[in-house]
Amino acid sequence: MTVSSPNQAAPKATLKAATSETPLRTTFRIRLNGETVAIATVGQAYRFLTEYSSIEWMEFRSLHGEAMALLERAADNAILTVQATNAVRALLVSTKLL
Question: Which residues touch 20 (CB under 8 Å, ≥6 apart)?
Fold first, then answer.
């Protein structure tokens, strides 16, 4: 029996979440630098939350971590998209992006 280490599992979960086409329960439309950005899938939300450096999210570390974890889980299990959507919403509202 082979057991993968946590370090081996993390990149697979990250890649799956970043490329996931699983729809969120809503489409978030936010304005950044004068442009409207639509976030409609788990992958789009995950990529949006990873594009900015950790310094950008430091103030909201707990909400950011929860949203990232739930997006990774939703990429594997679409039933979790409600929780992932709520976590992304909470983060975006706290950062005043929504």
Answer: 41, 42, 43, 46, 71, 74, 75
Predicted TM-score (pTM) of the model is 0.82
Can you give the residue ranges of every domain in the chain? 18-94
Give the chain's mean pLDDT. 86
- C-alpha span between 96 and 74 (Å, rounded): 24
Distance CA 49, CA 52 (A): 7
Q: How many residues does the chain have?
A: 98
Rg, the chain, Cα only:
14
- CB-facing half-sphere around the CA of 4: CA atoms within 13 A: 8
Rounded to whole angstroms, the Cα distance separating 85 from 98 reads 13
Query: How far are the Cα atoms of 40, 72, 75, 90, 92 from residue 8, in angstroms, in the given order?
Result: 28, 15, 17, 30, 30
